[in-house]
Amino acid sequence: MNTDHDTIVAPATAAGGAIAVIRISGGEAFAVCDRIFRGRRPLAEADGYTVHYGTIAEGDRVIDDVLAAVFRAPHSYTGENSVEISCHGSSYIVSEILRLLIAAGGRMAQPGEFTIRAYLAGKLDLSQAEAVADMIASSSRAAHALASTQMRGGYSEELESLREKLLNLTSLLELELDFSEEDVEFADRTALRATMQRIAAEIDRLRSSFALGNAIREGVAVAIAGAPNVGKSTLLNRLLNEERAMVSEIAGTTRDVIEECANIGGVLFRFLDTAGIRPTDDRLEQMGIQRTMSSIERARIVIHMVDASTLTGPVPAPDFPLRPGQKLLTVVNKTDKAPAAWRLPEGVVGISAKHGEGIDALCDALRESVDTEALYHGDPVVSNSRHYEALSAAREALGQALDGLAHGLPTDLLSEEIRQVITHLSAITGRGAIAPDEILQNIFSKFCIGK
């Protein structure tokens, strides 16, 4: 990851819009812009947080009428002098302005370079920087709330609180080392154990939130499973409001898993339309059923579909195993063809996927299966696998420290064990030390250019 302080330029808006924004950041941002910007006065003389009307020109040739917003260091996104030029969205105009800015002394920014400069300037910690990318990629209200909470620093504040508590513990232990000849104990071991156990509980709570956070970030996986020809593909098409899956009266039409997304009640769901489950000698169908089982295994919610027209008694239980924590929704399809005396059992959703009956009730049941109340109230929820791995490493190290405390580990070794916990927690936010270059490269290479 290039972290020099050249003046960088890049478009900050997607192509095709009526208006485009071009960002410039660096020590020479004003000088670079003033070489091509013609306004009432040079941008180098302008106050911060002001907007100026002018033109972009190459000699006597005017490229476009623009607005230039001025941000002076350190009060900018990157912490550097910055300008944002708003121009017409023509791809030709944008490319011409970029060409002139580069000729005037700027260079094209790398993916994520504006945000990495914000991180290096202390404007954002590492977890907040990652939330910027999540905010841009958010495709539902829940994903937006998740990224917004993390970007505002609520998540960082909780981690910093844990880190401060651990630093206080090591300070007391290391103070004992300074007075080792006097055999003084500054950190009462009973109180020390209680504090460490409270920190462990907080780490466990954050780790347990990862299942929800990751599902919201990537889309809640919902497997639609059941026997052949019960209407699984028809239901998928109904939920998507388009003919995505091929539907046929012939049992076993679906041989592979079809995956599509739909936003329901502000939450993104990833629906997995699977092959029907039944005994078969057809090798292709057997392969499809194996993939069905894999989809069921990785799903957070499983819709077990049953054909109402085949029912002669109670709704059968699913003929596939569920793992702990999975939510099962039993859905009876083709209720318009159910036997006259049959009644829908309590807790079962009745639908007609073909005619659209009961779909709203099913969507309500899906939405209620995902508890986002804590998310919308700003409670920290872990959604990043890198953060989860760091928390897991911190919890393991804290467990070793607690074991050491129970077995009378010497003070210097106990302090070192706790410092390992601090190191793992600090890796999430990057506070206390700049993260290794390979971690920065991995994180910021996924950003779009211009952010």
Automatic annotation (TrEMBL):
Q: Which UniProt keywords apply?
A: Cytoplasm, GTP-binding, Hydrolase, Magnesium, Metal-binding, Nucleotide-binding, Potassium, tRNA processing
Enzyme Commission code: 3.6.-.-
Q: Does the keyword tRNA processing apply?
A: yes
Task: Note the Gene3D superfamilies from the entry.
Answer: P-loop containing nucleotide triphosphate hydrolases, Probable tRNA modification gtpase trme, domain 1, tRNA modification GTPase MnmE domain 2
InterPro entries in alphabetical order? G_TrmE, GTP-bd, GTP-bd_TrmE_N, GTPase_MnmE, MnmE_dom2, MnmE_helical, P-loop_NTPase, Small_GTP-bd
As to how many cofactors bind and how, the note says: Binds 1 potassium ion per subunit.
**Cofactor(s) the protein requires to work:** K(+)
What are the residue boundaries of the TrmE-type G domain, all occurrences included? 219-371
Q: Which GO terms describe its molecular function?
A: GTP binding; GTPase activity; identical protein binding; metal ion binding
- Look up the record and give one Gene Ontology term from the biological process aspect: tRNA methylation
Places the protein is found: Cytoplasm
**Main location class:** cytoplasm
**Which sites bind Mg(2+)?**
S233, T254
Query: For K(+), which residues are the binding ones?
Result: N229, S248, I250, T253
| Gene Ontology terms: cellular component | cytosol
Tell me which residues bind (6S)-5-formyl-5,6,7,8-tetrahydrofolate: R23, E84, K123, K451
HAMAP family attached here?
Answer: GTPase_MnmE
Q: What does this protein do?
A: Exhibits a very high intrinsic GTPase hydrolysis rate. Involved in the addition of a carboxymethylaminomethyl (cmnm) group at the wobble position (U34) of certain tRNAs, forming tRNA-cmnm(5)s(2)U34.
> How does this protein assemble?
Homodimer. Heterotetramer of two MnmE and two MnmG subunits.
Q: Which NCBIfam families match?
A: mnmE_trmE_thdF, small_GTP
The entry assigns this protein to a family as follows: Belongs to the TRAFAC class TrmE-Era-EngA-EngB-Septin-like GTPase superfamily. TrmE GTPase family.
Question: Protein name, please?
Answer: tRNA modification GTPase MnmE
Species of origin: Alistipes shahii WAL 8301
Give the gene symbol. Answer: mnmE
